[in-house]
Amino acid sequence: MRDVVVIGLDETNRESLSSTTYADSCRFISLLDHDEVRGLEDFDFKALVTTCEERIESLGIRPDGICTFWDFPVAELALVLAQRHGCPSTTLESVVRAHHKYWSRLLQAEVVPEAVPQFAPVDPFDPAAVHSAPLPYPFWLKPVRSFRSHLAFQIHDRNELDVALEQIREGIPRLAGPYDEILAQVSLPSEVASVDGSWCIAEAPIGGRQCTVEGFVYDGIPEVYGIVDSVRAKNRSSFRRYEYPSRLPERVQARMIDLTERAVMAMGYDGAPFNVEFFWDRSTKQVWLLEINARQSQSHAHLFEHVDGVANHEVMVALALGERPHMPTGQGASGVAAKWFLRAWSDGVVRRVPTGAELDQLHERFPEAQIHIDVAEGDRLSELPDQDSYSYEMGVVYATASSNTQLLDDYKRLRAELPLKVRRSR
After folding, report:
1. CA dihedral 290, 296, 298, 302 (to 10 degrees)
2. How far apart are the first and last CA of the chain?
3. Measuring CA to CA, how many Å separate 286 from each of 49, 226, 281, 283?
4. How far is CA 114 from the centre of its chain?
5. At residue 275, does pLDDT exceed 60?
6. How far apart are CA 106 and CA 99, in angstroms?
């Protein structure tokens, strides 16, 4: 029995791990539970490493693999711990190349220039930043290392730039300190060295149909095993659902796979999973690369499990153990699967959430659906941690069906019956 340490493991992902071929040969050990990871307010990276080391020591084990499906700072934390314990992993420098938005864009511009929008670094603490827009309006402004679209703003004019910079200056130190600790451990090229964790990147707007390419690199060879559609809501900023398999034309998917392989290899990435986000503008036939994530997506685990027969956690565990992953295709019980986001579009107070009995009744009516509510009665939406800049996430619904039409119809009926209510603020 091999010991695999999973940082931020919760019951939902433990169930997904049970669908993998490693379920009977590995013991999955949680390090920092789900609530600890979701509730991280102090991103003291050195303290996190020390805490994890102490817990591993108290377990009295020698990990065979260490992994995670969480974003910053947990993705980097898992890598540092894996290297300390001699477990298989990619290099910290390759992960920083992928995640540091400015460095990553510089490398992408060398190998896939046709898919990279105009971009520029921005120091939000420079008094002159608000007076000289880095790009023509409109543009996006986001930290060079962030997560969950936190502190990302679409800027249309100088007034919006001023407001965004004010919010970024207030919120970015929480991210910048721990990220600078990580940057100090790698050798940065001269053009990147001054762009530390307190900086932002401005990018020209890109749009169209969005998707995520999931894959891995093993023994220096990248491999893609699935593409998931990321359907945005009417505000065009927040996700409405993730849907698998992708409904993009095959020729477009092939272009994205080619771009993915070239971009990921430019990062020096090996022996680890990745997901790469793209846009396809149907009117111009343009494919845009949005970002590279040096980890797999836990949001897609149920989707792969229901459609292909095994969660993408199969890939994460295999690589954590130094083995080549093998993902099946189309061997699941469903033709299509989705993760729906339960969102509110303005601030308010949660006044009604479903009871356990009501959730049981909904499950009887929609047996293929799984409902997870992340708010409680009395919660003020604007006080929820780590939301995107344009909506509030209150929970998710995982759903499956034999066809896309059935999937949409079932969700509409379920949402209409779900007693989740918010009293809007005036």
Report:
1. 100
2. 57
3. 42, 21, 5, 8
4. 24
5. yes
6. 12
Mean local confidence (pLDDT), 239-259: 96
Backbone angles phi, psi at 286, to 5 degrees: -85, 135
Q: What is the DSSP letter of 138?
A: S
pLDDT score of 389? 67
Nearest-angstrom CA–CA distance, 209 and 323:
34
In this prediction, residues 360-378 reach a mean pLDDT of: 91
What region does 330 belong to: left with phi over 0, alpha with psi -120 to 50, or beta?
Answer: left
Structure tokens at 266: 């430019």
pLDDT of amino acid 148? 66
Work out whether the CA dihedral 420, 242, 67, 144 comes out positive or negative: negative
- Nearest-5° angle of CA 226, CA 294, CA 334? 25
Q: Where are the alpha helices (DSSP H) in 237-312?
A: 250-266, 301-308
Q: What are phi and psi of 370, to 5 degrees?
A: -125, 125
Tell me if 136 sits within 8 A of 142, measured CB to CB.
no
Contact yes or no for 141/101 (Cβ under 8 A): no
**CA 279 to CA 285: how far, in whole Å?**
10
Does 273 sit behind a cis peptide bond, omega within 30 degrees of 0 on the bond before it? Answer: no
Q: What is the pTM of this model?
A: 0.90
Burial 301-337 (b: 16+ CB within 10 A, else e): bbbbbbbbbbbbbbbbbbbbbeeebebeeeebebbbb
Section 324-329 average pLDDT? 96
The whole-angstrom separation of Cα 242 and Cα 369 is 14
Are residues 231 and 242 in contact, defined by beta-carbon separation less than 8 angstroms? yes
Write out the two tokens for 397.
């619904």
* Sheet (strand 392-401) strand order: 286-293, 272-281, 209-218, 221-232, 239-244, 336-344, 392-401, 370-373
Lowest mean pLDDT among 229-243, 255-269, 342-356: 229-243
| pLDDT computed for residue 334 by the predictor | 95
| Pairwise CA distance, residues 176 & 298, whole Å | 25
